[in-house]
Write a structure and sequence with these properties.
- By secondary structure, the chain is of the alpha/beta class.
- It has 2 domains: 3-73, 5' to 3' exonuclease, C-terminal subdomain (DNA polymerase, domain 1), CATH 1.10.150.20; 89-324, 3-Layer(aba) Sandwich (Rossmann fold), CATH 3.40.50.300.
- It has 14 helices and 13 strands.
- The strands form 3 sheets. The chain has a 9-stranded mixed beta sheet.
């Protein structure tokens, strides 16, 4: 990839404004955003008739705006060697556990969504706290030399836990806390809005390298109860996760989200629980880990879905300093 092309793609990622398109001013952009078409990709894949009706544009102006969006996004094929060069930009964020790092091929990957599912007490939020600290380390020490944005839906973030882990890593606690942006999501719509606020933080110069959503489904599960609301719930979840993925790819950051599980009464043998969210969450997540409690205070992590890694499992422990591979001494 040439330097000019890379700079052009970076500029597009930084802008993401509908008003950059011909014929679309602030009023029209606001109308499109209100209808759920808030980025260039949404316009690029529309047909002229729909855009014309929605934005009150002429057919010719709609075609011109769509054509401009496609050119700006460079929606063309490229050979796999160019794609390989893009993959070289990816950062692997260490989890502090050699076993977990090996399970994930080196750590939590940027430009990807890593989902950790499991029952309460299995270590999902402990991994989140550890990652919030590890991300701030230099790249040569397994970090991403960046900051963290945490969407807290269940009031599980604990600064006291961050202090324990940062002290264990030899980091300044106050500085570590200032590099974590925390927001409590009070409902599903607020949770989705916070993703846009993260994009604003990045535009304002904050070097966010990890987004934590703990947990993904808590509000959706509570607010969209019953089979009659399932379609609406899945549609919103789909939009929410795709917004996260779009930021991850554009900004070269990692997404770590936790997920709850539900019981399956039809399962007679093995673990009778399964992650909630259905196929929408399953297809959107790049890496999927299932966590459970093991013997002697250990935790078992099973990688059960990945585009490039085999299905496997490992054990790890939770210590005062974070995650480790051996049982902590009392």
């Amino acid at each position: 990839m040439t330097k000019e092309k890379k700079e052009k793609e970076s500029k597009i990622s930084d802008e993401f404004k509908l008003t950059d398109l011909p014929g679309i001013g602030p009023t029209t952009a606001s109308k499109l955003e209100g209808a759920g078409y808030g980025d260039l990709m949404a316009i690029a894949v529309m047909n002229p008739a729909d855009l014309s009706a929605m934005a009150d544009l002429s057919a010719a102006a709609a075609r011109k705006a769509i054509s401009a969006a496609r050119k700006m996004l460079n929606l063309e094929f490229e050979d796999a060697s160019q794609y390989l060069k893009k993959r070289q930009e990816i950062i692997k964020i260490s989890l502090g556990s050699k076993n977990l790092n090996e399970l994930l091929g080196g750590g939590i990957e940027t430009k990807a969504i890593t989902e950790a599912a499991g029952a309460f007490g299995c270590g999902k939020t402990q991994i989140a706290h550890t990652l919030a600290v590890m991300t701030q380390l230099p790249k040569e020490k397994g970090g991403a030399d960046g900051k963290v944005a945490w969407i807290d839906t269940e009031s599980t973030f604990r600064p006291e836990r961050i202090k324990q882990i940062s002290d264990g890593k030899g980091l300044d606690f106050e500085k570590t806390l200032k590099n974590i942006f925390i927001a409590r999501a009070f409902n599903a719509d607020h949770q989705m809005l916070l993703v846009e606020k993260i994009n604003d933080l990045i535009k304002n110069g904050e070097n966010i390298k990890l987004i934590i959503v703990d947990s993904l489904m808590a509000h959706f599960r509570a607010e969209y109860a019953g089979r009659g609301m399932l379609a609406d719930r899945q549609q919103k979840i789909n939009k929410h996760i795709h917004n996260l993925m779009r930021i991850a790819e554009a900004r070269n950051l990692a997404i770590y989200m936790t997920n709850q599980v539900m019981a399956r009464p039809d399962v007679l043998f093995g673990d009778p629980t399964t992650p909630i969210g259905g196929h929408i969450v399953g297809h959107a997540s790049t890496y999927r880990i299932y966590l459970r409690k093991g013997k002697k205070d250990s935790r078992v992590a099973k990688l059960f879905d990945s585009p490039d890694l085999p299905e496997s499992e490992t054990i790890f422990f939770i210590s005062k300093e974070g995650l480790c591979d051996e049982e902590p001494k009392q």
